[in-house]
Request: fold
Amino acid sequence: MGARADQLTKIGTPLDYTTGLPITRPYHNGQRDFVALFNARGLSGLKLELLGGDHANDDAKGIALYDQMRKQGAIIFDVNSTIVAQAITRRAINDKINLITPFSGRSDAADGRAFPYVIPASPTYWSQAATMLRYITTVEGGSLNGRKIGYLSGASPTGLGQSTLPLLEMLARRYGFELKPILYSSSGDLTLALDEYIKSKPDWTLMWDGGALKVKILQYALSQGIPADRIASIIWLSEADLNQLGSAALGMLKYEGVATGRDVPLIQAIEREVRRGGLGNGPDADVGSTFYNIGVASIAIIAEGARLASGPHAKPLTAESLNEGLRSVKGFTAEGLMPPITLTRNDHQGGGAGRVSRWTSHGWESLTDWIVSDQDLVWQLIHSSSARCDLGVRCSS
Reply:
């Protein structure tokens, strides 16, 4: 049975096509391909529509597009930008419009009591750091005592670099390692900061930057003798990034919250039912890549929330009913694309599970199962941050 017009769920996806095109293009192509699959299957009597635009990673443009798309009927947004997500957080909560922030945005938004309409539905940057350090501890034989961990990230007070420091400091006290943070300006000369990093002689390096500078910084680190297999990145490190670095990047590690590659039933279904029929978006090379698969996952979670909210009789959705549906998602994996995600009224992170992968000549190789780590510290920080932060003040990410 075809979906009625009042069962069309509009999703606002203003993204960064100006400064973040290498991420945005495959990410949004994954979103569009999933929507094509979902709509073609006609499941649950629902259809999805994406409303697009370029916020250029700019506060004011993001707010303007949010207001525009809300008037067009969007009841949920994905902006894939920590800066823009923070800018519209208060509006979304006041308007009771859903804001999903997979692997971006405020980490303390995992607290559903404080942020009822902001739903990360993914491991926060804090959970990513905890999991990566758990893996490093295993490689080091079970102890980080006396080890030095370098931390490279941007210095912006609104970015993820500053906000992850408190969690790393807590982990340093727990596990006995020395933390060497190097926070740099995205617009200034990197030389002094990077020279300080090299002189510190870290045993391991956490690369906590998803922006355009990361390739340049990694290239410098490798050229100065930092071993690739002792560099570990947040999730925003792609195949294209590493191909720019060449063979020197073999062995580099990253956090993985969504499976990469095409050997996943949902990605195979998109290839079979969408792309082979000429309905796909973007180049075939994007399919299965890091950012493409994260894009697929981002809309798959929304679709699952919509399915639960609509129920067996395909009730028309509102922002409020979709919110209830999202916060009822239980054990959702998107056919093996991600670890099981369970969302509740209190927990908008979904469990915090991820894994560590290594870059090889054949692509990403998983080194761990889906694991969680140090969630007691993560949630301690989530609760303390959400309790003290006025929603109009960008004091966390």
Q: What stands out?
A: The chain is about 40% helix and 15% strand.
